[in-house]
Amino acid sequence: MELPSPVIASDYIYRTYWLYWRLLGVEGEHPLRYLLLIMQFFFVTIWYPIHLIVGLICDGTLAEVCRGIPITASCFFSSFKIICFRWKLAEIKKVQQLFMELDQRIATAGERSSFYRETIRVAEFIWKSLLVAAILAIITGTAFGLFRRERKLLYPGWFPYDVYSSDQRFWLSFAYQAAGHSLAILQNLANDSYPPMTFCVLAGHVRLLSMRLSRMGYDLTKPKEIIVRELKDNIEDYRKLMNIVQLLRSTMHLSQLGQFISSGINIAITLVNILFFADNNFAMTYYGVYFMAMLMEIFPSCYYGTLISIELNGLTDSIFSSNWVGMDRGYCRTLLIFMQLTLAKVEIRAGGMIGISLNAFFATIRMAYSFFTLAMSLRK
Fold first, then answer.
1. Secondary structure letter of residue 350 according to DSSP
2. Using CA of residue 80, residue 82, residue 85, residue 86, what is the dihedral sign?
3. CB 30: neighbour CB atoms within 10 A?
4. Of the chain's two ends, which shows fewer C-beta atoms within 10 Å, N or C?
5. pLDDT tens digits along 150-206
6. Which residues, in sequence order, are CB contacts of 354 under 8 Å at separation 6+?
7. Hey, how many other C-beta atoms are within 10 angstroms of the C-beta on 33?
8. Do residues 127 and 15 lie in contact, with contact meaning Cβ atoms separated by under 8 Å?
9. What is the pTM of this model?
10. CA–CA gap between residue 271 and residue 26 (Å, rounded)
11. Taking a C-beta distance cutoff of 8 angstroms, is the pair 203, 311 a contact?
């Protein structure tokens, strides 16, 4: 299926991503932006995880602690990641600008069809899946609190007053937790949708560059000057791709490290909750949705991180597969130097330690299982 327009715009898939930032008051020019930003930053980013942590410490029952750890860890690391991404918004915009420049290099119908089918549609599926998971988490989380057998807050939390002294105070506190939970999930959408979408688009552009490199020199109707120009353009495309990789390393250096730690803790404790502390169908549904959401947060990024490495490693073969026989010595020398550049292993690491790849995904699962066995031993 081809796009109706001869021009592909990668920035189209980021329209919802920037909507998240506008809802958080970070982007946009609406009159209440700064008021929304300050209130959201204080009451959600800062105070919400603090009141959960203090409430978790003050609550002594094992069931309440296990029930509160996943949301507490999620909110804490969500606040951590939103601050990291907010700090790097200029780099995020630079990456988007580089993608738009690379879009201009998509010239043939085959390239447009391949990029639309294998990149644009997949990237849109990713953010839509994350959005559906977020909506389900909001609905099931709120229903879990409303339909409990006894009247309690959504999560153990500390308030500077007795929550249960009156109905008004209880429902005010409940409403704050429900609203804060929803806004924390909105923050997570802004945090977690960017890495897999961007990795997907990056892998797609690397794949297109590989296609263009392997075609060089086979059109015998083109003069050698045009072929040399194509080589220079492809080298420039490679430079832009490496620039994007460098920007992504800077952007995701800390945020993805927090994501791996948070996911490992949450997956383990959620399993404990499902097996031992889910006392009704809403609880089972909520923890089941939460468990799948934790996996969805890290798997797409890890998958496309691996795919980026595979596609970049294939550039050397694509260069060698081009028709360089019969070209002059200067062209072949440039081609050889370019091949040497593409031999370098490219990997984006979280915290400078953990490569964002499928190996990291399975390592996170193993870490979660270790936490799970530790929790089981403590329970005995």
1. E
2. negative
3. 10
4. C
5. 777 878 888 888 888 888 888 898 889 888 888 888 898 888 889 999 999 999 999
6. 256, 257, 260, 360, 363
7. 15
8. no
9. 0.87
10. 35
11. yes
